Amino acid sequence: MEPPGAGVGKAGDFDAAGEPGPPRRSPPVSVAAVLPAGGSGERLGGSTPKQFCPVLGRPLISYTVRAIERINWISDIVVVVSPENIETMKSIVRKYGHERTTIVEGGLTRHRSIFNGLKTFVKGNTFCSPLQKPEIIVIHDAVRPFVEEDILFKVVMAAKEHGAAGAIRPLVSTVIASTTDGCLDHSLDRAKYRASEMPQAFLFDKIHQAYLQCSDYDLDYGTECLHLALNYSKINAKLIEGPSDLWKVTYKWDLFAADCLIKDTISQEVCIITDIKEDAVQMGFLLHEKMRNHVKHVKDIAVSLHKNDNLQNILLGQCYSLICIKNKLSSFEEISQLVDILENTSASVLYPVVLISVYLGILENASFNSEIESLTKLAKEVKKKNILLYGLFIQYKKDNLKLQETMDSAAALITVLIRERNPAFVGQLLVA
Amino acid sequence: MEPPGAGVGKAGDFDAAGEPGPPRRSPPVSVAAVLPAGGSGERLGGSTPKQFCPVLGRPLISYTVRAIERINWISDIVVVVSPENIETMKSIVRKYGHERTTIVEGGLTRHRSIFNGLKTFVKGNTFCSPLQKPEIIVIHDAVRPFVEEDILFKVVMAAKEHGAAGAIRPLVSTVIASTTDGCLDHSLDRAKYRASEMPQAFLFDKIHQAYLQCSDYDLDYGTECLHLALNYSKINAKLIEGPSDLWKVTYKWDLFAADCLIKDTISQEVCIITDIKEDAVQMGFLLHEKMRNHVKHVKDIAVSLHKNDNLQNILLGQCYSLICIKNKLSSFEEISQLVDILENTSASVLYPVVLISVYLGILENASFNSEIESLTKLAKEVKKKNILLYGLFIQYKKDNLKLQETMDSAAALITVLIRERNPAFVGQLLVA
């Protein structure tokens, strides 16, 4: 059900995107996670806190929770939200089927929220019956959705050895200290400093102890857990160089970027379903060739949709983009069947699924009017199920050169429909 | 020819986007600018250096140059590029009509490139006949395209008073120092430090003197001009809090974000052109009402396209999105005329211009086939001129309730076409 190698869209550099990582063993410790999500999102400029902003229709925090919950060696996920967002968070957990998730009320500051999260693992806490206390606790920001198993594994293993560990990144800008009158005092040597990022991991008892001992000033004005571990538990955390995609959604354009990255990942695999009739199969073959220039993985299924026993199994894989090729414009019965099958896989709960109904024909002979109406109607209906249905008419030309050109144009249109996943265009009949 | 208040797309917070800033007087000093653009873009992961990556088809650096050159009190713009990119940069300057721009060969490091840039203002330099030496020199990164006149004015004025000044931003992450074995040594108090950003400005003689005096180590391993000014010219630069959109395009997703921000800005103004026939005017009025829910500024022009004396003047304003409403499907003559007018304004040199040809009609009576072919053909042709032509058929319904619904759908489609500016969809005929 997940994009290959990435719970929420792999955000690495160009060549790394979407490739499945190496299989990883579980760390030999019990692990749970706390996600502080009490922020107000002031820097974003909008009224919705950034963790609840929709990306492809789903709140950002759901991507982060999903990225953690798909790692089976993390037992519990505690999400700490401000009191006014408890109900919102509950409905997110319900709607997207998040498992092993406990919602806890946050404090007024980030540190107070994390502290509340830790308390849920301790007997006699005021929030819930205590969760099983883990040896290692991971702390991760709700607004860093692109966290991979690899870095989580590394910080957990380092925390087991050193007591605490955290992901770091090189500084993008020089850091400077200012005088009291707003002038440069000194600049730091970029090579000697790092940006502290998330995830971080701690021996549970050590970080819990640090929170119990630290001052109100720490709880109110501090932000850095590694600092508390150093000051109150005398632990020099191990610093782990993390991938660039650990970046934190902070500003409006970070949401744009997250949107593009997620679309990029879930568009890397396309499934072409053709009728068993010869024309359609041949066209499917041609389209397959062309699509390979645009996306990484193209799967072909030549199948009679009326005998769909194994189609559901195939779709249970990791495919959010389907192309269905037919050689007549009129019948929507098959598309309806496909929608039913898709619904059973519940793929569209997490991501909008693109379904492109491709027709072959001769433009001069085509009569679009009634088809447009039927397509629009069906598209409107399935959009409610998060399935985005588009129509594409491919002009069938015997002339081989022109056919190549038409197929290039078809592949380009399909690629854009898949990448953009734009709900406004559903029900439109494009022509290649 | 520019989007309101923003040379390249205002990237501020939600409420600030696209609003024209207050008119500003020129600073009472002579000012020139140096843009170091020699970077290799390793962090981006691609082979093209990030400053040359296309955004809406135009290299990123062109947006930055444009942002500086539209400020009339900056006399010269020196762009410093690595030797292998001199020709690329020359062709960018030619193609996008950049004025007051001098291209200089960079050194192996950032500081050496900036130094080369400064030398162009000094007699006897090896690059060119010397440019007029300014009192104040602005240094700005080629990969920060969203720089506004306001912050440039502030750093220039502060540099005049203090000798040097630079834009700063709050730190997004905590900064930490590591021990030699990769563990946490200490973390910095986020409140006491700032990220040093660009633009920066200096008294020319002071920064030039600093570069003449500094060590080879500084030139090879340093990055911070403010640091050189402090060390070699004993100037404590004034630090100016800059807007959030000064951010530097560093990673792949920063390009996604820049793309979205620029599209967002140039889509804030829409011009509706209607035939003077009553049906079209009325539909234009309805569409105007609906579009106001989606974009900030909607201009109406009811005009006979055959008498287009004043249309060109109107289009010479700041509009990259045009909707042309007609009450028959067949005639493309008027669209061709509009394209000619658009070409004369040369708006499409800097940004792709969206032109949506809207037809009114009754779906049952329509025959699309020949129209689709003509539309596709014309669209293909004008795409070469960076004009993106789309067709939209609005079903005319007498029933008032249904008409409202249709117009809502039309406005939604138009909004998406304008915002996405997707070249793949040109020549398509959408139906609302």
From TrEMBL, chains A, B:
Region described as Disordered: 1-48
Record keywords: Cytoplasm, Nucleotidyltransferase, Transferase
Pfam families reported in the protein's UniProt record: IspD, ISPD_C
GO biological process per UniProt: isoprenoid biosynthetic process; protein O-linked glycosylation via mannose
Comp. bias intervals (Gly residues): 1-10
Record's catalysed reaction(s): D-ribitol 5-phosphate + CTP + H(+) = CDP-L-ribitol + diphosphate; D-ribose 5-phosphate + CTP + H(+) = CDP-D-ribose + diphosphate; D-ribulose 5-phosphate + CTP + H(+) = CDP-D-ribulose + diphosphate
Localization of this protein: Cytoplasm, Cytosol
Any one GO CC term of the record: cytosol
InterPro entries in UniProt: IspD/TarI, ISPD_C, ISPD_synthase_CS, Nucleotide-diphossugar_trans
EC number: 2.7.7.40
Domain (D-ribitol-5-phosphate cytidylyltransferase C-terminal) ranges: 268-410
UniProt pathway: Protein modification; protein glycosylation
Similarity annotation: Belongs to the IspD/TarI cytidylyltransferase family. IspD subfamily.
Subunit structure, interactors included: Homodimer.
Name recorded for this polypeptide: D-ribitol-5-phosphate cytidylyltransferase
Species annotation: Python bivittatus
Lineage: Eukaryota, Metazoa, Chordata, Craniata, Vertebrata
